[in-house]
Amino acid sequence: MPCRRCGRLTATAKGKLDEASSQPLPVFAAQDDVEERRWVRALILAYLASLNRSLFAAKCLVEVVVEMYREGVTLDDAKVMLSLASLQHGGQLLKPMDEDILLSWVAVIMIALQAVGVPLNPEGEERMKQQGRQNPADDEGGMIAGLRGMVRVSVDQFLAGTDLFRLQLQQSMAAKMEGDGGGPSPGVFMLQQNTRLAIIALEVVRGMGLPTVVSLRQAPSPSSPLQEGEEPAESQPAAQSSSIEQQQQQQQQQQHVPCQHWVPGFVLACDSAAMSRCTEAEQQRASAVRLLISFMGASQGWLYPAWDFVSQCMECYERGWAAEDVYDHLQDEEFAQSGGLVINVARVPGSFNVTAAMFGRWLSVVYMTMVQLGVVFAGATRQDGWAWVSGAAQMHADEEAGSTLEAYGLADFVLHTLNNEEQKEKAGRPGSSGAAGGEEAEQAVVEGVLARETPEQLRKQARMGFVTLEDPELLPTSPSVLIMSQQISLVQMARQLVLQERTLAPSSTA
């Protein structure tokens, strides 16, 4: 059954992964709704990654909603898309509570975009005309109406000079002054969260350099010195701006708010048609971003982003991109997060980044699995070590031998895991294969990504040693066991997808 807290699958979910074994990612019945599948995939991946307290993932979520808004996708459209996708997967994509939270976040972002006058694309304008609306957030009922006032206040705070850093500092100080050891109430927590999301949305819009009706040039804070020749800006609510000023701001917006090196690329990574028109460097950047977002969700135990991570790794491999080249397209600050599996707090320059190391290790595991399975790598003759991310061994940065030793150790781990899978098939399931039914798919989950929920298989392995000390709390809570079991799951998933491709290859070429 799904976990009551988060809807993740556990070992008792017999038969529910039959579809996942042959279709790791959602497949809709109709073939003409590619756009809807793209939005659903992007929303779910970014949302699950955002639950790991990643600012970068939150910005990617905003990037997705901005593109949806500009193309005229309404909140009702997003709700229908998510509902259909959930039905296709038997309700295992998102639990109802997660779906409601995601939709509320989409509503907050859309209201913020409407408040500052983000324009629609021509396709979006045409879609709004057909629906008799001005913009996707033009709705006076339901969730949008309830959140409009709160977002309006957040927009005014941003225009008055409040950025995300200052807002987080204010909220942190307010919590300390209240002295509530139990933390803020759910209502206060939700209000603070939505306020931060609105501020993040406006910062992303400003970073993307999009034209807006209301200027996003913030008034300097009292602690910020004015630049030479700069006059203090008045902190007026957006609602009090005159129409003449708005027109002037809209005409001059591109000059006043240039693009601030906006390079996340998550929306591009979810659009295969747009990816095909980009340079190789842009494609590698977009793929790296999508891998990082999927990793952040999968590291929490979500099966959907885990499948996406493995499939994207395989795509990068088949394109002939070295693992190190993909890894190098990510910046240090994009790995920053707290909570979840990996914790990264107060990192100083030159220190070891656990999140980046784990990401590099996951990428290397999938690449090495492909190597051991005999999948041809197009760039093998051009460079050495193309299946290993040396950034995952930063602790041995001054010792090349240490990095090499770690790479060989990981390769042995992958080889032994594959051998164990083959032996299990021959001994216990002679008629099964990597493309077989739900029992093996569930076995991959039991031994891998969700080992916290289902440690029974690991207990069986422990009994094979000389001495067994039963500690029921060790396996579910041990970080080392969790990390190893996740890597086992990555090998199993990659093996399963490779065997599926080999099984389907003859029929597709016949």
Automatic annotation (TrEMBL):
Region (Disordered) residue spans: 216-255
Biased composition (Low complexity): 234-255
Protein name stated in the entry: Expressed protein
Domain of life: Eukaryota
